[in-house]
Design brief:
Helices cover 27% and strands 21% of the residues. By secondary structure, it is an alpha/beta fold. It has one domain: Class I glutamine amidotransferase (GATase) domain (Rossmann fold, 3-Layer(aba) Sandwich). Strands 4-1-5-6-13-12-11-8-9 form a nine-stranded mixed β-sheet, sandwiched between helices. It has a two-stranded antiparallel ribbon with strand order 2-3. A hairpin with an 8-residue loop joins strand 12 and strand 13. The radius of gyration is 17 Å and the shape is globular.
């Protein structure tokens, strides 16, 4: 049986501060290939290069990756300030309608960090520009110094709704996660279910209520050590099962067929 194709949303970067590239972290492709058991495909998130209908036809599921630029606040009716940071309007133009189309079609996606925030905004929600500035909240940002291992170390618990989707998936109501984000959910979007929170009340795990497909999204970075981490592995495994189910339903994995329904 052929593996499903997972489109991984790329980010625009400058290589050596000079050469523009679309890039995806190796830990994302390794998680998709090794744990989700799918073919990882880099998506250049730019409407000048690809369209949402083309992506929906080419891929069986999508990994909405993290990224340094934030969703532009115009997407949720607010004015940009210095606190909102940098933006990637090209990615906004692709991913936000892609999320809505996937929800409608039942096409699987897994949202991570910025991807988690994109799902909320796509469904009509809003974001706080800086979590650490809110009363009673802690600093969720990546440590500025240290090794990758130190930056991605487990730093706080996430508690899930008793008997909820994430509780059933993880087999535990509380897990430890890393944290590398500055923004977070302010107003939950329409049909967005907050199924997990950090100790300070910051939303950390969501899904779209009533969606016919896989819509789980998390604020942390499960792609780090995904093959071995007891929290990351079931998340990517379940995502892979959803992608294979979607691909099979439209005839892409039957008898080696690559036809697109």
């Amino acid at each position: 049986m052929k593996r499903p194709i997972v489109g991984i949303i790329g980010n625009q970067n400058l290589l050596n501060n000079q050469y523009p590239v679309h890039a995806v972290g190796l830990m994302n492709t390794q998680a998709v290939a090794g744990v989700t058991d799918a073919i990882p495909m880099l998506i250049p998130a730019d409407p000048r290069l690809v369209s949402v209908p083309e992506l929906l036809d080419a891929c069986d599921g999508f990994l909405l990756t993290g990224g340094r630029p934030n969703v532009h606040p115009e997407e949720y009716g607010e004015i940009a300030t210095a606190a909102h940071g940098d933006f990637d309007r090209a990615r906004d133009c692709i991913v936000l309608p892609l999320v809505r189309a996937c929800v409608e079609r039942g096409q699987p996606f897994l949202g991570i960090c910025r991807g988690f925030q994109e799902v909320n905004v796509a469904m009509g929600g809003s974001l706080y520009p800086e979590i650490r500035d809110l009363p009673g909240r802690t600093n969720h940002r990546m440590p500025p110094d240290g090794t990758l291992e130190e930056k991605f170390e487990l730093r706080h618990a996430v508690s899930f709704t008793q008997g909820g989707v994430f509780h059933r998936l993880m087999g535990a109501q509380s897990v430890m996660t890393n944290t590398l984000h500055g923004q977070g959910i302010c107003r939950a979007g329409v049909r967005i279910v907050i199924d997990g929170t950090a100790p300070d009340g910051t939303p950390e795990a969501i899904y779209v209520e009533g969606a016919p497909g896989f819509t789980l999204s998390v604020q942390w970075h499960p792609e780090w050590n995904a093959a071995n981490d007891p929290v990351s592995r079931p998340l990517f495994t379940a995502f892979g099962e959803a992608c294979r189910g979607y691909a099979s339903a439209r005839g892409r994995l039957i008898n080696g067929s690559s036809a697109v329904a």
